[in-house]
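Bumping with the actual sequence this time:
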Amino acid sequence: MSQKDYKISIYKSLIPIIFLTSLLFFNIIFFENNDWFGEYTFHYIILLSALTALLIGITENIKFSKIIYSILKNIKSILTPIIILFLVGALAGTWKVSGIIPAMVYYGLDMVSHKAFLPITLLVSTLVSLATGSSYTTSATVGIALVAVGIAFNIPAGMTAGAVISGAYFGDKMSPLSDTTNLAPAITETNLYTHIRYMTYTTFPTFIISLICFVVIGLNLKTTNLNELNDISTLSTTIINDFYISPLLFVVPLLVIFLAFLKFRPIIVLLIGIISASILAMIFQNDILQSINQSNLHSIFQAIFIDTEIHTENPRIERLYSGGGMKGMLWTIYLTIAAMVFGGCMDAIGALNTLTKSLLNRAKSNFELFLSTAASCMGVNIIASDQYLAIVIPGKMFKKAFKKKKLSSENLSRTLEDTGTVTSALIPWNTCGAYHYGVLGVSVFDYFIYAIFNWLSPITTLLYAAMEIKIKKIKF
């Protein structure tokens, strides 16, 4: 019996999901700082949910070997992302000791207004993501620096991270260089540029509303008083005393963005970014390297593989001066693997297929079809913990239904992006949510409400569907 032949009831399909969400809510309500099982609370909850799915599969006479094969296949599919996660950790470490991130913070403190910071963060992140087509690159480069600048301005890290992620996912949706922007039209057999044009109807209003919200939030932030201005001046002085700060340091980030724009492989781009930053550190930051280890080369290796602790007398800048390295990405990588185990179990027992088909069968009207598609995308993001599956599975399942209702394919491709692409960053155990937490150091729970573009996008696309605005029909 092939995996496609497995039949499982909707009720049994929901049991692992109910178990997962119940444990998560229990943890959030009764345990502070998500420490029910210590640092790896999410990991254990997801693995226990995977075990629940596995036991259900065994009771349904699904071969244990088939479930294990599905799990291994899922894990194999993320080997490249795991390598990228390790390299992102190395990039963060080398960009700190080379002075690149401190330079971004230094110039940011000097040039950006306190009240204009959040909308500027949104716009900068948007431009970088459009140029690179990657939310990952955006977070790993300007995102880290912007969060550090925000902390220096006494702006909650969740606000800054929300603005970074909102901008990062604008480009992840709209850039022709983005993998998801190419994947959605490919699955639905839609022209790439037709797909991008059609997304502008929902994406630009959502972005403008997000920008207005950040302007309003910025204007209502507590005014920086004289003491805080002195603190910011002190931070700038600390940075320039500790590091060699020069616009020359921006050569590396510009090179990384340029190579990403040319669609070089992410691993190659990251390696070039790491090597280039290491060279800059050896040339310009000898004092910093000596403070870490007597051997400059050992200091570079420590920044790449472990982490760095650069001494500073200013406690407000400790976060900027510490962390990074591949070791810092292990939490994220373990969570990603746990999520793939859960997704593999759910896929193997047929739960994923059953839930998606159930949504499809309930779609009678046009609006219900859009709603079912959106729910399916978000559901796959939650269950399978993978952004690409959240586009591929609903895209394949709902393609015929859209044709049957004489709805043009770009309606489906747009809905896949408006719901599948952007909501991935809002789920802590999703590969995207875990990644942004690992890179920015800000949890999903802290940035969720401020990732306005991400949670508003599904609402906008469903409002358009409900009011039949820009819903293109097939003409025969």
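The tokens above came from a reply further down the thread. The longest strand covers residues 308-309.
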